[in-house]
């Protein structure tokens, strides 16, 4: 199953990527692509290599073999850095700064043309206005996550890499974030354990296990792999564990 | 139950190599003291000891805390354990981490151990250091500051020959000094055990505290270029996040302080330093007085230690998922280090000015301390940042009274770049040329590393693999 049709531009590409941490092999000959505009979920059991994949895509780690490209450029390049917005799992903003200072500081680092305007927009959009002067070290986990999402979006990225983006958010905020991401253009790769989130935020899946691609396809195709009333989670679990 | 609990608490807080090293240092220093015999402590060394004692006491109060892990909060504190046993176990682990600072003094002043009373004095000081660190979080910032100032003043009175200061034993007043140290230790230890009895309550209070705390004077970064934003952030305020004692781990507490307030404090200290040098004797004594003229040397050493504590906060509050995805890592880190260095220069500038004035009025030996402040300490500061990034990077992730990890040998190694700086600071007054050459070598090493792309690439990998977010 290929994630790319002929003639499509590629947003994210990993080709034969391997990565080890000492004796532990995290990724082994991993290859997949996400076309520009694609909304893909990165699924996999614990230790499958999802977070390592995202860290390679932002350039924090280097592949031992193979290569990684963002819109055709190396993740270290200025072009890739300008294009990518990244939200790690349990993201932590600068805790010694206020909410507004965080947004303005990262906006300035990223060279956002209208930092103030963008900050105002995100403060309102994510209901952070009342906390704009608050010391981030004192925010609740939910509000910290909202700020982290705002920071990942501050430069209106073309490529979004999100690791469990809805963690800690209450249901109304989850809906708000889903709505925001829906409205945004660009290419999204969402790492998650929760199939319902994959279903809401994406339309295709790359399933990895032990650092290798296990399966690729659309969520509809995935659903069809189960019996009539079998929940999609059960299908995914069966595939991940290799059960019949 | 207590022995098992003690073992568990120690093993969860300290790596085995770290404990082995502490044991080796203890055996070495005690052995050295036996060999050294009962020589009288020289006055110069005694003044060092007094200044270091004051610094350690102040640092314990300023950045102390109870070493609690997240797993303690989630599991250990929920077990049906005797609060007395728990307090003793936690206190003992604190003693290993904080009280052992005094081991460095065992080495420096080993010959004093030949007198049994000085051993009592040092043990009392170790308990005082530990206990002040335990009490610190329950005190308000102002109380802590006042208490630290009072303790520093009391301790430094030993330099003027006062017999009843916690450091008086180092200046020949063994009975009075020991009495003062034991008294301080008794009061602080009683307070520490009272504080440990309610450690869970203190933690809960910390966890549920209001989210309304606001930044009083926020800085706007709108309209600034990326590099201006970095300098603006790092020059406007200084973040203090010490790794406690020379072997310590990152503290969970970090404090953003306006640079101008820190400069005001160092300016006051620099004036006091200049006055002290003048009071000590005429310019000629500054050069030749080997029996009693340590102010310049002691202050140089203290400034070296201060810069070390500031350097350790450079990376602990960094957020690589934001900064390193915004700018190429070498570019970001170079500006970060440069901005931290400028900020250090601002803090040290009053001392450079004081040395320059002393030099101008005839105190020729102020040249050495001036070289230390302008060359040695800044170079060591940069090397300390780079070294700690590479060897033992630790990220402060929350302020919930939990420490980010075990004390380990690699964290102990972060102190290595400080050693040549302290040696140069010690000899600079008599050998300014040696300090200049040594400082020059350190500058070359730091510049070479800062401009090495490969070095930063390895740092990024180290940070990522160390769990930096």
Describe how the helices and strands are arranged:
The complex is a heterodimer of chains A (244) and B (469).
Chain A: E1 10-21, E2 24-35, E3 39-43, H1 50-57, E4 65-70, H2 78-83, E5 84-87, H3 99-109, H4 115-125, H5 141-153, E6 159-163, H6 171-183, E7 187-191, H7 195-201, E8 204-209, E9 212-218, H8 219-224, H9 232-241
Parallel strand pairs in A: 3-7, 3-8, 5-6, 6-7
Antiparallel strand pairs in A: 1-2, 1-4, 8-9
Helix pairs in contact in A: 3-4
Chain B: H1 2-13, H2 16-36, H3 43-63, H4 70-74, H5 83-99, H6 101-108, H7 116-135, H8 141-156, H9 174-196, H10 199-207, H11 226-236, E1 237-240, E2 255-258, H12 259-280, H13 283-288, H14 295-311, H15 320-326, H16 329-360, H17 367-391, H18 409-412, H19 418-427, H20 432-450, H21 453-465
Antiparallel strand pairs in B: 1-2
Helix pairs in contact in B: 1-5, 2-6, 3-6, 3-7, 3-8, 3-14, 5-7, 7-9, 11-16, 12-16, 14-17, 14-19, 16-17, 17-19, 17-20, 19-20
Concise description?
The complex is a heterodimer of chains A (244) and B (469). Chain A is an alpha/beta fold.
